[in-house]
Amino acid sequence: MKFPIALALALAVSAFVGAPALAEETGPLKPIDVKPALADLGKRMFYDTRLSGDDTLACASCHQPGKAFTDGEALSRAYSGAGHFRNAPTLANVGYRAAWLHDGRLGTNLNDVAREMITETYLMNMDMRIMQERMKQDPVYVEMFAAAGMSEPSNGGARNALQAFMQTIVSHGAPVDTGAMSTAARRGQGLFEGKAGCAGCHSGPRYTDDAPHNTGVSDNPEIWANPERHSAFVAYAKFMGIENYMNLREDLGAYLRTHRDADRRSFLTPTLRELTWTAPYMHNGVLATLDAVVAFYDAGGGDDPLKDPRLRPLNLVPSEKADLIAFLEALSGETFDTDAYVWRADDYGYEVIENWRETTN
Amino acid sequence: MTVTKLLPVLLAATWLAGAAHAAGDRPAELAPLGPPPIPADNPSTPEKVELGKMLFFDPILSGNYGMPCSACHLPDAGWAILDRISFGYPGTTHWRNSQTIINSAYYSKLFWAGSSKSLEAQARSAARGGVAGNGEDDMMEARLAFVPDYRWRFAAVFGDDWPNIRHAYAAIAAFERTLVQTDTPFDAYMRGDDDALTEAQKRGLDLFAGKANCIACHNGALLSDEQYHNLGVPPYAGWEDDELAQITFRFELYAKGSTEKMYRTTKDDPGLYFRTKDARHKGKFRTPSLRYTKYTYPYMHNGMLETLRDVVEFYNAGGGENEFADTKSPLIQPLGLSDAEVDDLVAFIESLSGDEILIDEPELPEMQPLPAVVRN
Fold it and tell me: Total domain count for chain A?
């Protein structure tokens, strides 16, 4: 973790926190305009394990296209010798977010997110100066950077390309957008916006207010039982300037960046799009199914003194729960496991630069 | 060899030899090796050395929990790697020859271009370097806290509440300061035992201090002047045909600080230049000790010379050529040694190595869950 990055993040995050969430209408998401050649380059990089220090992890290791770019695990895998302490979030519509990571720590842009994921010691642990030279050793990248209008592979160009690819990951074909919702789902939408109060936070076209809330989600004890996960958390909490980080046994969420007591254990509202692909749920994956999520909110959320006061028992009857789930399912669209989002060619390799002494580096 | 060919060589050799060295003398420029210096800010204790020994072998001090110090400094490979270039972190290769740990305690600066001022600093740089340990201090320090055995050892040795990563490097340095060899045949000879060297080795010593003038740079008890010289060692051959080596070479040019022009055109290791940014220092590397070299082949900063005899013949030919011709040391001139003299010189250099130093590797403790502190 590099200190100047932390400073930039702190500034960026404070700017983000000051911006009020905009009330937006729901509806289909419009594609983001990106340069196709740049996005194509980013797509190839997204599936390339050489973006990690020891050549074992690609972005796609934890953000798999067949799971709406999640990994199906409660707690994500991490770099060799480490383990993650949070659930891998979906990248569906990730280009529309105002802040990233469950605690909202990154509030600038996807270029910074890409850098953070690649360089973070417990994630991909990559010295990007080595990554740049790796790409220059792969003729396919040399060609693709040129096609995208760049003179040669570079770190900045690589991050821009990953950003462009991520901006192409946009939901499509969800019944809520096509109008092909069942009557149960329509009844569920009424509950969602009415009696169940979900829309209080899950608002706008991505069904999130992009703000942190404490819903009382219980701790995931696996973090503390597993030294590889726990030690990664310690390194993170220490980096974020948390006092007494060795004795912490809870993920403090947005507090880790704000250091405001009121933010303890609050996490950004996740998007609800694509959630049929993205189980298990919550920032730490403790809820395995949508049934469990609806039951959790029906009970008024979890048990936490700082819980958002809007969370109260909902007293939903079984048919209402079923309707609500039908609506939630209608927020998921077509799979991303298609050629548009997956680099299918197994063409990753290096080539020796012949006539090396006569060739410009 | 005809007289006309021999004459310039003799003249050069006489000029190089400087003060005349009489056969059979013990040269004043050389000395037996005493105990290593122990820095005042890192005193040695048996407990610290034991901790350092564990950490030296423990992959916990690396990015992937897989690359201990010992990965590239193997006890049964001369505490180095018996290859031109160290293999480096997974997915990469290194770009310089792994140096032996034996007698590293005596150097005032570490690494081939002297970029670390202490063993403590060297351990940290190696644990963190992108083509070495690729670790990050916060993460490695966090991991140490999860090893009960390390918690009590760091507390006992350093008084740490939780293991401090700086103390890990201090302990490793303390261990390395025990890896010295002061009882070679050469040392016995220099201490007065006339029979410690063979006749061939004594003739080799005379050449070393005289005609071959090795002593101009390989002097003192360590047989190193700790200065930086360009001998014209040819560039690492792997840069021609190994894609990972080409990647690492450019990375080092970029990471260690090069002008755009240098980055684009340099095809050999600029060495000391990276530390001083002075063009006169390109291609210069610190004179290595000749001790323990029996076990640390191949030789030179990039391992391009396979045997000790290759090294002697390299000097006999007046060194070699690389792209930094402007900085090549004028001390390096053809020596005109006969085959028999080369044999004697190699025999002498072998007297600078004693028995191979091997140890029992420690049992390594593992990370355990860390129970919450019970507060009253």
Answer: 2
Distance CA B221, CA B7 (A): 33
Shared domain for A149 and A232, answered yes or no, is no
With 0-12 / 13-18 / 19 or more C-beta atoms within 10 angstroms meaning exposed / middle / buried, residue A182 is middle
Q: For the domain B46-176, what is the CATH code?
A: 1.10.760.10
Class of domain B3-30+182-350: mainly alpha
Residue type, A157: G
Contacts of A81 in chain B (CB under 8 A): 59, 62-66, 143
Cβ contact B372–A353 (<8 Å): no
State CA A37 to chain mean position distance: 24
| Cis bond before residue A280 (omega within 30° of 0) | yes
For residues A205 and A208, what is the distance between their CA atoms, to the nearest angstrom? 8
Contacts of A243 (CB under 8 A, 6+ apart): none
Q: Which amino acid is at B309?
A: R
Contacts of A341 (CB under 8 A, 6+ apart): A43, A65, A168, A169
A354 DSSP 8-state letter: S
Same domain for A179 and A320, yes or no, is: yes
Chain A CB contacts of B255 below 8 Å:
127, 129
Contact at CB, A228 and B370, closer than 8 angstroms: no
Q: Per-residue pLDDT tens for A140-167?
A: 999 999 999 999 999 999 999 999 999 9
Taking the C-alpha atoms of residue A100 and residue A94, their distance in angstroms, rounded to an integer, is 8
The segment(s) of chain B belonging to CATH 1.10.760.10 are: 3-30+182-350, 46-176
> Which residues on neighbouring strands pair with residue B305, listed in sequence order?
B299
State the smallest CA–CA distance between residue A61 and chain B in angstroms: 17
Which of B92, B142, B246 comes nearest A231 by C-beta?
Answer: B142
Q: Which residue blocks in A56-182 are alpha helix, DSSP H?
A: 59-62, 110-119, 128-136, 139-147, 155-167, 175-178
DSSP B145-201: TT-HHHHHHHHHHH--SS--HHHHHHHHHHHHTT-----SHHHHHHTT-TTSS-HHH
Put simply, the answer to whether B239 touches A228 (Cβ < 8 Å) is no
With beta carbons less than 8 A apart as the criterion, state whether A77 and A84 touch: yes
Least Cα separation, residue A56 to chain B (angstroms): 9
Range of the domain at A207: 175-329
Q: 10 Å Cβ neighbour count for B360?
A: 7
Task: Name residue B230's beta-bridge partners.
Answer: B328
pLDDT value at A16 more than 60: no
Tokens of B182: 């002061």
| Same domain? A317 vs A277 | yes
pLDDT digits (tens, 9 = 90+) for A48-100: 999 999 999 999 999 999 999 999 999 999 999 999 999 999 999 999 999 99
The CA distances from residue A280 to A69, A276, A299, in Å, are: 13, 10, 19
Task: Please answer whether residues B358 and A215 qualify as being in contact, where contact means their C-beta atoms are separated by less than 8 angstroms.
Answer: no
List chain A residues with CB under 8 Å of B254: 129, 132-133
Q: Enumerate the residues of chain A whose CB falls inside 8 A of the CB of residue B256.
A: none
Mean pLDDT for all residues in chain B: 93
What's the start-to-end Cα distance of chain B, in Å? 91
CA B352 to CA B183: how far, in whole Å? 9
Q: What is the CA angle B33-B37-B39, rounded to 5?
A: 170
Residue of chain B whose alpha carbon sits nearest to that of A356: B240
The answer for residues whose C-beta is within 8 angstroms of residue B84's C-beta and 6 or more apart is B97, B236, B237, B238, B298, B302, B303, B304
- Calpha distance A63→A57 (Å, rounded): 11
A318, pLDDT greater than 80: yes
